[in-house]
Amino acid sequence: KINGVEFAVADLSLAESGRHQIRLAEQEMPGLMATRREFGVAKPLKGARIAGSLHMTVQTAVLIETLVELGASVRWVSCNIFSTQDEAASAVVVGPHGTPDKPEGTPVFAWKGETLEEYWWCTDQLFRFEGGQGPTAILDDGGDATLLVHKGVEFEAAGAVPAPGENDPEEYRLVLRTLAESIAKDGQRFTRMAKEILGVTEETTNGVKRLYKLATDGELLFAGINVNDSVTKSKFDNKYGIRHSLIDGLNRGTDVMIAGKLAVICGYGDVGKGAAESLRGQGARVVVTEVDPICALQAAMEGLPVVDLNDVLADGDIFITTTGNFNIIMAGQMAKMKHNAIVGNVGHFDNEIDMAGLAKIPGIKKVEIKPQVHEWQFPDGHSLIVLSEGRLMNLGNATGHPSFVMSNSFTNQTIAQLELHTKPGEYGKEVYRLPKHLDEKVARLHLDALGVKLTKLTKEQADYIGVDVDGPYKLDHYRY
Ligand code: NAI
Which family does it belong to (predicted)? Predict the structure, then answer.
């Protein structure tokens, strides 16, 4: 803690470089900057204490400083051990007007290359606001912060934290340990905290799935706003974001020539569609695997062969998982790949690729080519290149999606936080989506920057198709 600002980041002297990058990003984030202009004076988030767990990048810095400008008190961690941009984290701590000796910004607990143990320590810090207070809202990406609170409340009610099961993954063991330590010091901390939390705004597909599961099981402790399924989020960030950042990660990680190679995309949802376009744009021969007949048909109609993974193991040069599911590429399958095939994941969690199984292959050796790029040498002499240890490689090997598309996502996040804080009575213990007029508003805020000239409906035309001249222009079930 320096000058009253708590933090744990790599190096505050990186703040100046971070500030320059934030300044450039602001220009590319018109939605967030318009939101600052609209609400910066009224400060409608005054009194809000927002605990944010989302990749600590330059774009996230602009989100954090928007929430602060709207009046919120904020604490932040990254939702992935490799995704922090250290200069952005430092700049947020120092703040726009502070110096590394006298920081005046926002508490951040995040650095690139955290251990899993450090990751959960950081996540616990997220909830420790000044004066022993907890948050009034969570801003989550993947649901880890929400999970910690829910598990905390569950174990406090049970009076004990269970011992980890034999098959529990390392990560869950660390959740249990973090909670055991916390509950040993203060047995009702999470229960008290949960009562003050108005809700969570969730960024990504996997986190949203967790929220709906909690709601269906009757276990959701506060409101959830599903930001991912705003059209201006998932149909833009998941698709066009990955179209940009997937090849960025591949290039920075390996610099391998993509043209002409056989690229296998597992999953053809929003992220898979962007991934396929990204690689096809480089001239790769792209094939897809799918379980859903609708998405498989979409791929086929785009001219992409839909294949069984096992049939392309020996020929594929690049394998990318995008499913949000687990056990997509298993160790035995990786053993059959060609020499120096590249394997990477852009789905939220690291269990799409069987890294644990890979490490257990007798005689296998892991050689670090550089951070987040590893060569796995099989005893028969052939090797594989695995990016970011199976974690989100577009954030681990590159810097994630660019500012402009994240402005869409984060304007939705800001609006969702405004909804929770300013309309506390309107949201119960359910999962909600933002109304369509706000989705259209987010899109509208990004049109000028791209020189878009919208056609205006006449009153007669609007009446004819049964909408208002000013929107919403589609019924809720329209799929875009
Ligand atoms: P989605 O649900 O639209 O797509 C996933 C697709 O994978 C579905 O079509 C599903 O049928 C398919 N699938 C499931 N199991 C499969 C299997 N065994 N084999 C082949 N295909 C399978 O989800 P979306 O929005 O595309 O997100 C995918 C993942 O990417 C999620 O984990 C999400 O959280 C994450 N994500 C990552 C981003 C990044 O920057 N890396 C950005 C946005 C989302």
Answer: Belongs to the adenosylhomocysteinase family.
Tell whether ligand 1 has an atom less than 6 A from the beta carbon of residue 206: yes
Residue 443 counted as domain residue: no
| Residue 461 placed within a domain | no
- 47 within domain boundaries: yes
CATH of the domain at 368: 3.40.50.720
Are 128 and 7 in contact, with CB atoms under 8 Å apart? no
- Dist. CA 390 → ligand 1 center (Å): 15
ipTM of the complex: 0.99
pLDDT 10s digits, 177-220: 999 999 999 999 999 999 999 999 999 999 999 999 999 999 99
Domain, as residue range, for 268:
240-396
Q: Which residue has the tokens 């001239």?
A: 283
Name the residue at shortest CA distance from atom 22 of ligand 1: 267
Q: Is 104 annotated as a binding residue?
A: no
Cα–Cα distance, 103 to 238 (Å, whole number): 34
| Average pLDDT rounded to a whole number, residues 286-306 | 98
Sequence letter at residue 181: E
Residue with CA closest to ligand 1 atom 44: 238
Instruction: List, for residues 326-344, the tens digit of each pLDDT value.
Output: 999 999 999 999 999 999 9
Q: Which of 238, 392, 479 to mutate to test the pocket of ligand 1 (most atoms within 8 A of CB)?
A: 238
Per-residue pLDDT tens for 46-59?
A: 999 999 999 999 99
- C-beta of 85 in contact with ligand 1 (< 6 A): no
Last residue of a domain, one of 373, 396, 419: 396
Residue 26 within any structural domain of the chain: yes
Domain count, the chain: 2
- Pocket flag, ligand 1, residue 60 (CB < 6 Å): no
- pTM (2 d.p.): 0.97
Compute the half-sphere exposure of residue 399: CA atoms within 13 Å on the CB side of its CA. 15
Residues 33 and 126 in one domain: yes
Write out the DSSP string of 381-394. Answer: S-EEEEEGGGS-HH
Q: Is 278 in the pocket of ligand 1 (CB under 6 A)?
A: no
> Parallel, antiparallel, or unpaired: how do β-strands 383-387 and 341-345 relate?
parallel
Is the distance from CB of 313 to CB of 358 less than 8 angstroms? no
> Ligand 1: does its nearest atom lie under 6 Å from the Cβ of 295?
yes
The per-residue pLDDT of the chain, averaged, comes to 97
Query: Which of 207, 103, 191 is closest to 416 using CA atoms?
Result: 207
- Consult the annotation and say whether 455 binds a ligand: no
pLDDT at 377: 98
Given pLDDT bands bounded at 50, 70 and 90, which one contains residue 167? confident
267 is in an annotated binding site: yes
Tell me: the pLDDT tens digits for 227-246?
999 999 999 999 999 999 99
